[in-house]
C-alpha cells in the first residue's frame, strides 16, 4: 500500500495513530512520501501539521512572513538563547540584528575562510592512513573550528558540541515535541549564555580589542551608541552563531559527500571538478548532491489568519488561523516547475534556485559561510586518490538512533599518496 492509501485507512477519530504514521514515514521513507504527496495531495492536512510540497506554494508561504510566521520557534529558542531573529518576523529585533550580524560576517573574509577550511581538512587527512570516519574526524571539526577560531566564540570543544547538538535537536528536529529534548536545549542554552557572559565581558573591558573575528567586531560595534545593541542581545546573537553552524554544516558535508560517492555516473566528473582549483564547479556538485538528501526538508510556520493555500488550483485549501504549516523545501526542489528534469543529477542548475538555506525573510544568516565551507571540505575529500565509501555498513551514514549523522567512513589508496 502507498503512504496515502495506508494513511486514509486510519480512522479520523484516531489522530494519535495518524500522527505516529506521518512521523514514521518522515523518518523512514520521506522521499516516497513526498513524491506521492507532490503528485496526489500537494496540501496535506494531518494532526502533526499541514504539509505543503509544491514549489509555488512553498515559496508563497516563505514569502509571506506576516501571514505565515515563525512564532512557534519562540517556545524552544526564547528560554535557551533569549529572543532571536528566527523566532521574530518583521520586528525591530529581526531588522536591526540581522543587519548587524550580516555586517560582522563579512564577504571579504571568505577567501580566508576557504583557506582555513582547507588547512583543517588537509591536516586531518595527513594524519590518517587510508581512510577515516568523516563525522568523527572532519565534518564536525570543520564547523567547530570555524565557530571557535573564525567567528571568535572560543569555548572548549566538548561544551560547544554539547550545546550545538542539544539546541539544534530541540529547535529543528523535535517534531513530536519530546519534553526531554526541550529540557536539554534550555539547559544547554542557559549554560552557553553563562559561559559567554564572562568571556564577552573581558572583551568589553578591553579598549584595545583588535582581533578581527565577527565576535570581536560585534563587541566593538556594540560600543557605538548609534547601533544601540544591548549586551544581552550580543550574547543571544553569539549563541546563534554556534546553534546555526555546527550540526547543520556537519550533516551537509556528510550527506552531500555520500550522494557523490554513491553515484558512479557522477563521481568521476565531481572528482575532476574537485581537483580543478581554478574553478568553483565543485559548488554545483555539492548543492545538487544535497538536493537528493537535504539536511532539512521543511521550514515550520504558523498561520496568523484564516487564509487559502494553492489559490487558483484544483487543490486550493482553506487554512485556519493557528495551523502549523510545514513548508517542505525538500520536495519542492523536486518540483518540475522549479527544477526541470528534477529526478536527474544536473550541475547546470542556477545555484540560487536551491532552497537548502531557506528563502525570504529568514534566509540563512550563515549562507555564504556554508556555501564556502561545505564545498571546500567536499573538494579536499574527493581529491584523495581512489576515494570511495568504506566497505560494508561503515560506508553508510549511521545516525545511531539520533537526529544527526554520527558515523560515515571513507577510504582511499594511501600508496598512491606517496
Ligand atoms: C549547511 C549549513 C546551513 C544550513 C543548511 C542552514 C539552513 C538554514 C535554513 C533553512 C534557515 C531558514 C530557517 C527558516 O526559514 O525557518 C536558516 C536560517 C538561519 N541560519 Fe542557517 N544554515 C546553515 C548554516 C548556518 C550558519 C553557519 C549560521 C551561522 C552563521 C547560520 C545561522 C542562521 C540564522 C541566524 C538563521 C535565521 C535567520 C533569520 O531568522 O533571519 N546558519 N538556516
TrEMBL record:
Alphabetic keyword roster: Plasmid
Cleaved signal peptide residues: none
Needed co-factor(s): heme
Entries under SUPFAM superfamilies matching the protein: Cytochrome P450
Domain of life where this protein originates: Bacteria
UniProt-recorded Gene Ontology molecular function terms: heme binding; iron ion binding; monooxygenase activity; oxidoreductase activity, acting on paired donors, with incorporation or reduction of molecular oxygen
Similarity remark: Belongs to the cytochrome P450 family.
Protein name as annotated: Cytochrome P450 protein
Record organism: Rhizobium etli bv. mimosae str. IE4771
